């Protein structure tokens, strides 16, 4: 069970609060206009809890070298539009201009600093929380703040100064978005309604194999239904010849992780083979056309782009009768209409199921949103890599930081909250 402090544990009135958010958004290449403001909208509940505080926002947009690496001025304007009140912005992160702007804040003000990844230490410094705490950005900002709120779940798997550097310098608490992610994901992993299904696809095969390993070995999942590249790998290991073109693609995607992923996949198949439901048919892209093939018709020297029709029906039925569904990754190359069937039908089944459906972040969350199904799901995560790491049982630096801070500051914070209540 994750044990972190939340905004319920602190009194923020009149305090200066640092808030790390993830509002990294898709931008129009030419105009830098927002193509989607979902992540900005997601932080509004936390900011509404901080209306009596002086708020300093730490955020990033893309990373150095990318076309959409830009300042956070547009984000401040968009956030102000959504909030219906001004959001100040400064072209600085922790220098004299930023310090001056922070000093001038009044309760109720919000100040957004510039893109934290424009700070060299944010992108180059590696190490533990103590190392991050020594960076100039953390030292300067910690000196003017009373509290650090981490609301950047999508960055929770990153270890950078703005994520973990404040661990031992300030009381660190989870924001509304972060707290909701931890609550909803923990609900699915710690006490899932049965049967619990893990539906794992996409091309991040190594991550999905680790998720399957964690969920099977810890008794979380009653069944694993692989799709996409995950299914192709497990079919190959089961002795089904998927063809050189598909095997070469998997090896290229996995790179240096090929050997370790295959070893781990073989181990879970040996230990839990009866709980892993492989496809019974597949759809190949033969010269641009969808061709559904039974497994006995393989190999075919064409890429396997989707589940076959029978497999889609089997998966949909399993989802509809499940108590919990944890789904991550598409079932095939959904960008091509002829090969979107598996992905569309499994998402529709999740929406129709009476079970608790948890959708991983990244492409999965985008697909759910585009199909207008988010309100029919139990939880749609805002984090791609972070969500995968969490359900794979890996330690997330941001969560470890919040837990360490809770252990260090909980007594002091609780006392202060009671005193100021």
State the main characteristics.
Rossmann fold; 14 strands; 421 residues; 5-stranded parallel beta sheet; single chain; 42% helix; alpha/beta; 6-stranded parallel beta sheet
Briefly say what this structure is.
This protein has 18 helices and 14 strands. It is of the alpha/beta class and 421 residues long.
Structural description of this entry:
With 421 residues, this protein is of the alpha/beta class. It is 42% helix and 14% strand. The protein contains 18 helices and 14 strands. It has helices at 38-42, 44-48, 73-83, 96-103, 120-124, 129-133, 136-142, 161-164, 176-190, 205-217, 228-237, 244-254, 258-272, 309-320, 341-352, 363-370, 385-391, 397-420; strands spanning 16-20, 54-58, 88-89, 110-112, 147-150, 172-174, 196-200, 223-226, 281-286, 289-294, 304-307, 324-328, 356-359, 379-380. The strands form three sheets. It has a six-stranded parallel sheet with strand order 3-4-2-1-5-6. Strands 8-7-12-13-14 form a five-stranded parallel sheet, sandwiched between helices. Helix 10 (205-217) packs parallel to helix 13 and helix 14 packs parallel to helix 15 (341-352). The two termini are 28 Å apart.
Find the count of extended strands (DSSP E, 2+ residues): 14
By CATH reckoning, the class of the largest domain would read Alpha Beta
User: What is the number of independent domains?
Assistant: 2
- Rg, Å, rounded: 23 Å
Low-confidence stretches: none
The total of helices stands at 18
End-to-end gap: 28 Å
Q: Can you identify the CATH superfamily of the largest domain? A: Phosphoglycerate kinase, N-terminal domain
Placed side by side, the strands forming the largest sheet appear as: 3-4-2-1-5-6
Instruction: Briefly note the CATH topology name of the largest domain.
Output: Rossmann fold
């Amino acid at each position: 069970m994750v044990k972190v402090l939340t905004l319920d544990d602190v009194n923020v009135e009149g305090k200066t609060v640092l808030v790390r958010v993830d509002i990294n958004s898709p931008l129009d290449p030419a105009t830098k206009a927002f193509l989607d403001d979902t992540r900005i909208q997601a932080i509004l509940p936390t900011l509404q809890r901080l209306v009596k505080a002086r708020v300093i926002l730490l955020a990033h947009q893309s990373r150095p070298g990318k076309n959409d690496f830009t300042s956070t001025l547009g984000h401040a304007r968009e956030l102000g539009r959504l909030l219906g009140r001004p959001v100040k912005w400064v072209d600085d992160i922790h220098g004299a201009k930023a310090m001056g702007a922070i000093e001038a804040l009044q309760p109720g003000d919000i100040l957004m600093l510039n893109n934290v990844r424009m700070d060299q230490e944010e992108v180059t410094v590696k190490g533990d929380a103590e190392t991050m705490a020594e960076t100039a950005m953390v030292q300067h900002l910690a000196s003017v703040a009373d509290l650090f709120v981490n609301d950047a779940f999508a960055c929770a798997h990153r270890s950078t100064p703005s994520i973990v550097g404040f661990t031992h310098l300030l009381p660190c608490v989870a924001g509304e978005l972060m707290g909701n992610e931890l609550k909803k994901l923990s609900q699915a992993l710690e006490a899932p309604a049965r049967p619990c299904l893990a539906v794992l696809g996409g091309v991040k095969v190594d991550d999905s194999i680790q998720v399957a390993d964690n969920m099977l070995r810890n008794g979380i999942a009653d069944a694993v239904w692989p799709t996409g590249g995950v299914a192709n790998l497990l079919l190959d290991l089961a002795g089904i010849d998927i063809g050189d073109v598909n095997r070469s693609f998997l090896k290229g995607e996995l790179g240096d992780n090929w050997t370790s992923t295959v070893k781990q996949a073989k181990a879970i198949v040996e230990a839990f083979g009866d709980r892993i439901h492989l496809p019974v048919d597949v759809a190949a892209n033969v010269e641009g056309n969808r061709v559904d093939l039974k497994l006995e018709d393989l190999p075919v020297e064409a890429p396997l782009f989707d589940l076959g029709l029978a497999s889609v029906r089997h998966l949909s039925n399993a989802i509809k009768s499940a108590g919990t569904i944890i789904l991550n990754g598409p079932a095939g190359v959904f960008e091509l209409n002829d090969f979107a069937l598996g992905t569309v039908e499994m998402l529709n089944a999740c929406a129709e199921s009476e079970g608790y459906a948890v959708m991983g972040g990244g492409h999965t969350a985008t697909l759910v949103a585009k199909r207008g199904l988010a309100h029919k799901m139990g939880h749609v995560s805002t984090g791609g890599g972070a969500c995968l790491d969490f359900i794979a049982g890996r330690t997330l630096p941001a969560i470890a930081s919040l837990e360490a801070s809770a252990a260090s500051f909980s007594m002091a914070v609780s006392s202060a909250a009671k005193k100021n209540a």
